[in-house]
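[job 0412] stage=fold_complex status=start
inputs:
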Amino acid sequence: MPANTKIAYFSMEIALADALPTYSGGLGVLAGDTIRSAADGGVPMVAVSLVHRKGYFRQRLDAEGHQTEEPWTWSPEATLAETPVRVTVNIAHRDVTIRAWRHDVSGVGGHVVPVLLLDTDLPDNADDDRHITDHLYGGDERYRLRQEMVLGIGGVRLLRALGYTALRRFHMNEGHAALLVVELGYEEMKRRGLTQVTREVAQAVKPLCVFTTHTPVPAGHDQFPLRLVAEQITCYGDAFNACVGEFCFDGRLNMTYLALDNSHYVNGVAKKHGEVSQQMFAQYKVDSITNGVHAGFWASAPLRSLFDRHITAWRQDNASLRYALGIPRQELWAAHQAAKDELIHLVNARAGAALFANVFTIGFARRATPYKRPDLLFHDLARLVALHRAAGPIQIVYAGKAHPRDGGGKELIRKVFEHIAALRGKLDVVYLEDYDMALARRMVAGVDLWLNTPLPPLEASGTSGMKAAVNGVPQLSVLDGWWIEGCIEGVTGWAIANGHASAAGEDRAADAQALYNKLEGTILPLYYGERERYVDVMKHAIALNASFFNTERMVDQYVRKAYFV
Ligand SMILES: *Cc1c(COP(=O)(O)O)cnc(C)c1O
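[job 0412] stage=fold_complex status=done
writing structure:
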């Protein structure tokens, strides 16, 4: 019911379903899980994103690990319903018509959160404009600004045209949607019969806006030169030009500051990230709400049926996953091995590998980019092989795409391939192509240990380790992002802690040694020598971490702190 909907959630990417390539990675998965939990909880929400007809991309890797990208074209016409309205936004002095495709997300109790995917591919539009909503994070900064106009400005207009008149919060999941602030200001200005945005107008907009920042480094924030802004944002005429200076710093329109300045509630995505962001934006109040994952969505089929047998209504009440403590060890182990069998089959089939279901398996998969250090595990190959021979056999599964323009990330994939080749015959490492949500679901459930090696404090939150926890898979990670909160050493997983790792002064050798030591001295002996104690760590990953690091708890916190205050 548009007239009863109170919250509008805006995100440049949303991971809705395996077949819809409308996401690239963590940000989009978080958005999808948020909406799934909002639907479960009956939150009166509507979500807005772009249709991304050519998706992010499909990753191809050649034998040396060179990445090439192919479009992942899909057709909303084939699966989604078109909403009955169209709106226009004037971009670079041309009216661009926008329509929306609707994808409904239904919760456990039947409540629906509609997701509107904006689309400019209409015959009325100029050819150039028809492609604005094609490529997620594609193109140059001009293309990105045009996309952000469609999302922020077009999104608000489309909601109004559909009868969403009672919205009291507009949640910006990262700064890409920040132009919605300008559109809300413009609406308010007209409502008051004014021709300029005044302080009173700005004060009326602020209570409507909520901003979640995801990036712990200033360079990661979206910004556009004023020349481009003046050329593209032509939909407001002088009213915008008069106030544009307000949002610009150093001659650039900075989407983060636009959102910070005009939101009544701002948060980072883990406690540590909230603190880092608070320092970075000292003049604003920055709170934190730690990310989560949707437990029902990320649990593998064997784990779901295990929970169904032992934990009443866990899907409606994720906190009850604490009762995983009472699940008999051998049942948890059997469910895990079933998920592992599936993964091993998939890896062997897709990569022509010969992995075994009884060998300790490490998983590492995420966006390939320098700060995540996918090559740290290979810092000292001789040491890695030695511990594999001495402490018990290991096998390793990798995956991850590099952004098409991230040269450093692509180079890292090639390096990992070199290490894989160097280890051939000694230790099996497989790099799977085309990491996406479907593959992620298999991997986080089917490995025995989830590895994460970011360079602090650059991992704002990280969520794949939470997906592993839902599946009873413990994490071994550098203490950064959510793991600072989630790691209880030897109970829920393990830390790669040496006290040196920091963006200011990286000590790779020390980090790698700490990683090898933990594997050799603690984790492998437990896995091969004291299986029951290993299963206890698996249980605690579920009972202590999956019960808390889920989007049910997270959405409750947004409701209390940001939506209905
Ligand atoms: C969860 C997920 C991510 C994010 O993983 P991080 O550990 O937070 O980096 C990226 N890509 C896909 C496909 C995912 O499912």
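[job 0412] summary: Residues 2 and 164 are 5 Å apart (CA to CA).
[job 0412] exit 0
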